[in-house]
């Protein structure tokens, strides 16, 4: 096993980076977790965690999966509707007595459940990465405040616009998927019952989803097909974040009213991107996980799940390998085919669901 005295620096304290830190600390490794924000960002909207994701959390720490189950709703029903509100198809979900459920839950609850397993002193805030260098034996991260960190391995868990990725796969740009997306959470217990996931299938240039996430709250997502102006290329958020009334009017009145009743501060607007599959996800002593390595369309709901699977795989190979180079090569050999398949099928599904 690689020595637990090895120092590992993780860039990005989102769900992938924080979970990896938790797993590494359980095994005794020396970990520093760097976050560019002044606090860990526990904002966000509702998340569908598929069963594979719950299994990945449970395998690493059953306390995390239990906390999430207590915080959200197990998935009970997927219902697909047309834009007039008519039923297209419905799929009931059942579970065996000892089976982990898929969950509908707030991102805040997920990240808080993971953060509770971390010592407070391992997270370093306001850590804006500026550059990475490495030697045969060390990796060094430099930050904009003039500080630096030196250790045995740097892991980039810094999302789709990853700065760390420049040290592994330079010049990779996000690929626009064709939708401008609004997401929000609203207090509501009548439109969307517990455990229900409603999808208004794509038509007339839009689609939407709604699901209950526990505690009298409903998450919604509203997707509008929109060309990307040259001035907006590479930006996560448009200059104008208002929902076009003529697009919202295409939804049935009850669904439209749920969105319209959401406070503006509870709405997030983003362009939808993925990245092309990378030829490699490590270089020397720098490694990528999660969206930094394989950001994908949300159509298969494998975003968070694949980041947690990355963490489990990396720790397994660090424990079973003699040197870091061997662990990273074995990690890449295992994960690259899996995440490439996630990316490919997620993009294909995104392109086939009735786009104009």
Report on the structure:
With 356 residues, the protein is an alpha/beta fold. 29% of the residues lie in helices and 29% in strands. The protein contains nine helices and 19 strands. The strands form four sheets. The protein has a seven-stranded mixed sheet, sandwiched between helices. The chain has a six-stranded mixed sheet with strand order 8-2-1-12-19-18. A three-stranded antiparallel sheet has the order 3-7-4. α8 packs antiparallel against α9 (324-352). The longest helix is centred in the last third of the chain and has 29 residues, at 324-352. The termini are far apart. The mean pLDDT is 94.
The portion of residues assigned to helices is 25-40%
Total beta-strand segments: 19
Shape: globular
Query: What gyration radius follows from the Cα positions, in whole Å?
Result: 21 Å
Q: How many alpha or pi helices?
A: 9
Attribute tags:
6-stranded mixed beta sheet; 29% helix; alpha/beta; 356 residues; 9 helices; 7-stranded mixed beta sheet; 19 strands
In short, what is this structure?
29% of the residues lie in helices and 29% in strands. The chain is α/β, with parallel strands linked by helices. The protein has a seven-stranded mixed β-sheet, with helices on both faces. A six-stranded mixed β-sheet has the order 8-2-1-12-19-18.
